[in-house]
Amino acid sequence: MSAGAVSADDQSERERALERAVRALGRRDHSAAGLRAKLDRAGISQDAQAHAVEALERVGYVNDRRFAQDRALRLAERGYGDEWIRADLEAQGVGAETAAASLVQLEPECERAGRVASTAGNGVRAARLLARRGFSEETLERFVARGVAHDGGEGVG
């Protein structure tokens, strides 16, 4: 067999990898790393994984930037803060630079925090909710300071 030639078994595995990847993308979008992990769990070889993911990237079915922007927006709409979203994107295999670029596209975190906090009645319960939802310390501090100023400092201490 000449260099660069692919055996029938390898070709069959590449086709299987591509079929599995397309099925996975039919259910929801994936990052390249997330798709590779899914194929790896299915027992697909590294070579076949790479071939499938690269083919899908070439035709635009796999695009980490698009995936990150869409996922960040969905998480922000569900009430999560930038730290949570960044960690989620990185867990999905999105690079730090791509994750950061996706966060810049979102509504400012402090505005999202106000809406999330209002569902918890503001105050300490709201601050705890914001912390659990991955809002930054800076946003929490601004929110608490604004709440104290609004309440006139009553009940603090």
Q: What is shown here, in short?
A:
This protein is mainly alpha-helical and 157 residues long. The chain is 71% helix and 0% strand.
Write structural notes for this entry.
This protein has nine helices and no strands. By secondary structure, the chain is mostly helical. It has a domain at 107-157. α4 crosses α6 (96-104), α7 (109-119) packs across α8 (123-132) and α8 (123-132) runs antiparallel to α9. The chain is elongated, with a radius of gyration of 22 Å.
How are the elements arranged and paired?
Elements (H helix, E strand, L loop, with lengths): L7 H20 L4 H10 L4 H13 L5 H14 L4 H10 L4 H9 L4 H11 L3 H10 L4 H15 L6
Helix pairs in contact: 1-3, 2-3, 4-5, 4-6, 5-6, 7-8, 7-9, 8-9
CA radius of gyration is: 22 Å
Helix content: over 70%
Largest sheet: none
Give the topology string: H per helix, E per strand. HHHHHHHHH
Provide the β-strand percentage band.
under 5%
N→C terminal distance = 79 Å
Number of helices: 9
pLDDT average, as an integer?
89
Shape: elongated
Counting helices, strands and paired strands, the structural category is mainly alpha
Low-confidence stretches: 151-157
**Tally of strands:** 0
